[in-house]
User: What shape does this take?
Amino acid sequence: MSANDETHNEYLTEYVTVMIGGQLFGLPISRVQDVFMPDRLTRVPLAAPEIAGVLNLRGRIVTAIDMRRRLGLPPREDARPPMAVGIELRGESYGVLIDAVGEVMKLADGTREANPVNLDARLARVSAGVHRLDGQLLVILDVDRVLDTSSDALAA
Amino acid sequence: MDDLLREFLTETNESLDVVDVELVRFEQDPNNAGILDNIFRLVHTIKGTCGFLGLPRLEALAHAAETLMGKFRDGMPVTGEAVTLILSTIDRLKQVLADLEANEQEPEGSDTDLIGELERMAIAGTVAAAPAAAAPAEPKSSEGKLAVQTLERPLRPGEVSLDELERAFRETAPEVPEAAPEPAKAEAKKADARKADARKADAKAKGPGRKPASEGEEEKSDTKVANQSIRVNVETLENLMTMVSELVLTRNQLLEIVRRHEDSEFKVPLQRLSNVTAELQEGVMKTRMQPIGNAWQKLPRIVRDLATELDKDIELEMHGAETELDRQVLDLIKDPLTHMVRNSADHGLETPEERRAAKKPEKGTIRLSAYHEGGHIIIEIADDGRGLNTERIKAKLVANGLASEIDVEKMTEAQIHKFIFAPGFSTAAKVTSVSGRGVGMDVVRNNIDQIGGTIDVKSVMGEGSSFTIKIPLTLAIVSALIVEAAGDRFAIPQLSVIELVRAQTNSEHRIERIKDTPVLRLRNKLLPLIHLKKLLKIDDGGESEPENGFIVVTQVGSQTFGIVVDGVFHTEEIVVKPMSTKLRHINMFSGNTILGDGSVIMIIDPNGIAQSVGSSAAHDAEEESEAQRNATIEKTISLLVFRAGSPEPKAVPLSLVTRLEEVDCKKIEQSNGRYLVQYRGQLMPLVRVSENVRVKTEGAQPLLVFSDAGRSMGLVVDEIVDIVEDRLDIQVGSDVPGVLGSAVIKGQATEVIDVGHFLPLAFEDWFRRKEMRAEALTRTLLFVDDSAFFRNMLAPVLKAAGYDVTAVGGADEALAILKRGQRFDVVVSDIEMPGMNGFELAEAIRADARTAQTPIIALSSITSPATIERGRQAGFHDFVAKFDRQGLIAALKESTVEWSEAA
Assistant: This one.
């Protein structure tokens, strides 16, 4: 995570909120390229399980990461198609597959709290803290850690 | 930076590179006036330009070098010393140029050392070569033309007159007519020709065999070409390439759309667009290709310097310099190649004395060659030096902790040689300034790995080593065959595809099986086959007819194999897009691409597949030869290989198995939680190897039947795979009950089953019952065998036969027990044991009065008449082959009866 959404209380960070398995997550809007409907996903044999496949997004090849798998959640029961959040990392395009996209929220960095100790380990691994909203918890996704699938293969 | 200066830097650097190469050639061929003229002109051009730009230091250096070279032209003998001096002058020039590039001005400093040397040598040459003195020391003919050319004194000794220079230009560059009158102007004109010179020199460097006779003519045409060439920034080319790639994709999409609409009016113009695109693509592709000779350009100079430094006589041969490859790849292999040539010169080749002693020609040869092979470029670096020292590598491996001594002993020479690519490995006994700095072949291999290449080494002690680098051309656009496997489409690069074969049960091409390996008999050759979906683990389990399918016959290097796919569509031009870093580790794919219909598919990497074919094949071959080697030492035994509960094979010595049966599943009954089957009029309990084994509910259930004393047990297995002859060497022990451990059987890790564990599972009283019976006729038995496996396997069997077994792992231990006074009714001993062997044990037992009468039975895998005779002499009562369980029991009965009778 960049330093600016860490320390300065007066700063506001905009988050794109998404739902994954009933939990609300926030992705810093600065890291989100676009939101799209993944179409014609090609599975990649021999790839890591959380790699849902690759797809063509306007001429670019995007690697789709199945967030449910990444978080150790069961696959969705309803057959509704997932949405994807486009993220760029080191010149490569990724699509993070999520259940649904919510709104854009402006939250003060000062109200962000560290991960609760009882946060599920798989969640904690990709979380950069939480925001308490009215009645629910918003888990901030650390995009770099979400995409770094190699490190927790060791940790797991 | 000033444009003029930048241009000057680029061109001068290039010229100097050419001079480097040409000088080395010239040294070997001092009578070639063509080469000398070329060098002379290049240096003169540099000198002139420096003067023009006001760079006195460079100019003075170039001038001094030029003077010495003028002496060569006048007939002064070309000595290695002189060439070295000129080469170091060129190095100095490069150094100054580098500073110039960084600071935009000539650095401070003096070159009087070099200039003095050059002048001294030039004068010495003049004295030595009398006719050279005739060269007229003309005063400067033109005043005020160029301020910087005005020297302190009219002309240095032996300085070449301008007239003479111009004569050289007229002779060699006739297409520059205005050379004479105005030098400054001529310089400018000649600047155009400079590139031509560079190119020509390039051409010469690439084709060393070319005759100088044709040079003049060549130059003419070359110059014309050069005059039409421009410099283009590499980035511009890369962008162009990307754009063309996109264009190709779009074209493909359009074609796909038109394919769906018959009678489209777009058809004709699109066809035209398609053709133009193809041509454009080819054209852009050409701009990326460069002859590999460009990467070799610096090598002659390097080798020459090394030869001088190391006092060796080295010849560098270069073949196939014109072989073209992508410039990106070219850049990346330059350094590894240089490093390897250095290595060959330093470590590979011996000193002349050593070579004389080894009856080799004094001159060592390093041979570089390059050629295309099936979408790859093969580069070989071979030397006729001393070859890799296997022993030293071994010692180093052990010393560096890269492998244990035992591992090293087991390895083949080729395997050991491969370790030179391991990180932190350098065998150079002494660290020379040339190589052996710890960064060695591992760096080379890393660089080659990065571009998807491979490196291999072959070496024969005393005869030389040869390194083979194989790198993909990595063209951005390739023609690929689109195939289907398990519902997914994949692209196989057309370059490696030889042909397509449709295999059908009744056609002449059909898939056969040798053991479990599918093969295709194609024109009397057996091709190994690989099922793509199995390889990629995407087997949907759907109906796949094992005998039918489309086979893509693929060649990778010298390896040919068939890839079995479900369907073949068409060929398509695809743009190779690199795989995401998350997927790059999958070596079965070389990239991915977007097809005309917009979907993304994976591009199969035939190399990756070949490796998976090759590794198993090579492994087999190695195992076999190893098995053969060991055959003389240890006999093989028959093993029954089966599968039960897991895909990994399991094995049990065949001699323990009474029968192999298949029973109708309907006959299997369940009672009290146990499976039973009526077998030969008795109820036979069925035992599973593990919980994972499922007793089939329909069809036939294969069983291994173990019988003893009228009772039988059936071991439920999924499948009986094979009966193999192999030696049994349990390498990894096991904590799992029922498994003795793992052994490599026919090249595969196999679990060896402990039958003794399962017998009591069938009948809780299997042993107890025996023991009860045995109470009446208990015989004590000492069982000596060094192999834990045999102890584990036979002890229960012997127990089952009614003996109170004490098993020990060696003759010493056995003797110790006997010495303590413990009495045994019978001793069963292995023959081949470390330390004291069975014969010696028998003799020792016979020698002791207390045990002289105890019957001893030998167990051995060697049952030749000679050993049996030897055994009798040593005092063995009987000689039984290992695993001949019935034989052993019979022999035991006999001997104990004898004994009791004797008692």
Notes: The mean pLDDT of chain B is 74. The domain at 293-472 of chain B is CATH 3.30.565.10 (Heat Shock Protein 90).
